[in-house]
């Protein structure tokens, strides 16, 4: 009996030691928040919790989303694969009929960590396609405005729990995309039975209110951490994609009037409060020291925030960068990216490492000693060494994508945009830019011209050629990292003008 207790004690010690070597991991992803929206840079709305992460961790000052809009970015965060390799070649998901973008069996951060013994949870906005079942004989009734009425809420759906998550509590997509119902694991908590309009009308649960979602995400996250704290021998991964400050801009009553820059500022402050609730829960259970926390956003600030009015009040949501959400310019995809890992990351440190959010998967894999499969994380390069030493930069190039499917490729200081305008919502917009007499590509030296004002394509044709060939290589190899050639999900579309000028892009 004594031997049994001794062996049991040793086993428990080994489990505790293993858990200590494998940190809990939390990735918080805000929605439509620009690089200038946080108060530790230039923001005029207080964001003390995010500022705390920056003070206690490392800021990545040259970090990027893979896309300048929601759905594609979220795919890349979880899979380590560029969004344009999927069937979604532009735009985002809008309809409940949109099928899951992550393929069955495709490696995600969650599935990889789950295999390593992590408990995994997703709380918040999914926006990667829910596999709803639909009523076969549905006939639209009077008063059924918008979408979501034909969903069969009594049946289970394909949700994040099919992609490596043990637990899911959240919503299908953005807070202006019906149906407006909470989903727990595979089923709606309540069906969509009434019409509600949060910018777009649609089916909603009778108690669903957009201005309460942040409170729900905070409560759910704290509850989850409380539960996981009881099993300290088993690490956890929490993916927390928030719904703010994306439209509708609806701060709850407790936060209205808190900032000096209006509702958008109030919403920023409430978003930060959710981050604070997570950090406090970690502190409460003494989990802070063994938890790696990442904070970032899915793209730059949206023009729906009223950027000109905010700038008049001294608040620059996207800093001094050109463009905003949806654009190929830096304001569309250069975002806040902060990593806190006590004891491993130097407090108050910064790195200029060129980073893409695709790198999250490879980093989690390296931390856990996982060798990724040939078809996993094909565009992911670990930043673990950078966390130890901010001067280390393992990545030399990234590819960016705009809402209309325009590309940019960056290597070192040079950035090539394969379009004549923004590729998005700022001027010159695609329809006008392609009809005009602008060059069909734009080359910028971001070190000398971070605001992307001077197109150098005519002065450096050799650099244009070099970057086009690098992009073509990444496309044809099905990956931008070393490893076996992989397949993209269909050909990558380019305008005929680009294919004629740069035949190497032909697939």
TrEMBL record:
Domain Sulfatase N-terminal: 23-367
Signal peptide annotation: 1-19
Gene3D superfamilies xref list: 3.30.1120.10, Alkaline Phosphatase, subunit A
Name by which UniProt lists this protein: Arylsulfatase A
Family stated for the protein in its record: Belongs to the sulfatase family.
Keywords: Calcium, Hydrolase, Metal-binding, Signal
Keyword DNA damage: no
GO terms, molecular function: arylsulfatase activity; metal ion binding
Pfam families: Sulfatase (PF00884)
UniProt source species: Rubritalea squalenifaciens DSM 18772
């Amino acid at each position: 009996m004594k031997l049994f207790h001794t062996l049991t004690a040793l086993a428990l010690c080994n489990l505790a030691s293993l858990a200590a070597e494998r940190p809990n991991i939390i990735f918080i992803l805000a929605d439509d928040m620009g690089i200038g929206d946080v108060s530790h840079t230039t923001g005029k709305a207080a964001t003390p919790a995010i500022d705390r992460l920056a003070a206690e961790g490392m800021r990545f000052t040259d970090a990027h989303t893979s896309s300048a809009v929601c759905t594609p970015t979220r795919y890349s965060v979880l899979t380590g694969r560029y969004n344009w390799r999927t069937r979604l070649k532009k735009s985002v998901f809008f309809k409940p009929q949109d099928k899951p973008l992550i393929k069955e069996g495709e490696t995600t951060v969650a599935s990889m960590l789950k295999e390593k013994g992590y408990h995994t949870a997703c709380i918040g906005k999914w926006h990667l396609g829910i596999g709803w079942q639909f009523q076969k004989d549905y006939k639209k009734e009077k008063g059924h405005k918008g979408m979501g009425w034909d969903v069969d809420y009594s049946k289970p759906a394909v949700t994040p729990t099919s992609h490596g998550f043990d637990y899911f509590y959240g919503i299908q997509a953005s807070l202006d995309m019906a149906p407006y119902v909470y989903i727990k694991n595979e089923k709606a908590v309540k069906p969509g039975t009434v019409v509600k309009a949060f910018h777009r009308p649609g089916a909603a649960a009778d108690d669903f209110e957009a201005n309460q979602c942040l409170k729900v995400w905070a409560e759910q996250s704290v509850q989850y951490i409380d539960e996981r704290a009881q099993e300290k021998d088993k690490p956890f991964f929490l993916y927390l994609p928030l719904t703010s400050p994306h439209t509708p801009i609806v701060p709850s009553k407790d936060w209205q009037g808190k900032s000096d820059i209006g509702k958008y500022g109030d919403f920023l402050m409430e978003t930060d409060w959710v981050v604070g609730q997570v950090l406090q829960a970690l502190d409460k259970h003494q989990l802070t020291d063994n938890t790696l926390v990442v904070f970032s956003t899915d793209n730059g600030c949206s023009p729906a925030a009223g950027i000109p009015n905010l700038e008049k009040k001294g608040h620059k949501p996207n800093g001094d960068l050109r463009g905003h959400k949806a654009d190929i310019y830096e304001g569309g995809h250069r975002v806040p990216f902060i990593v806190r890992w006590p004891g491993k990351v130097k407090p108050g440190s910064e790195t200029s490492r060129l980073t893409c959010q695709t790198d999250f998967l490879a980093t989690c894999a390296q931390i856990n000693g996982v060798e990724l499969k040939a078809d996993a994380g094909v565009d992911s390069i670990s930043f673990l060494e950078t966390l130890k030493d901010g001067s280390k930069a393992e990545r030399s190039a990234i590819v960016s994508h705009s809402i209309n499917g325009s590309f940019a490729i960056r290597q070192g200081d040079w950035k090539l945009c394969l379009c004549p305008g923004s590729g998005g919502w700022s001027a010159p917009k695609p329809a006008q830019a392609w009809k005009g007499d602008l060059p069909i590509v734009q080359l910028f030296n971001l070190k000398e011209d971070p605001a992307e004002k001077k197109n150098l394509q005519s002065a450096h044709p050799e650099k244009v050629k070099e970057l086009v060939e690098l992009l073509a290589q990444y496309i044809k190899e099905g990956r931008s990292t070393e490893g076996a050639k992989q397949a993209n999900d269909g050909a990558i579309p380019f305008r005929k003008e680009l294919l004629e000028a740069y035949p190497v892009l032909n697939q």
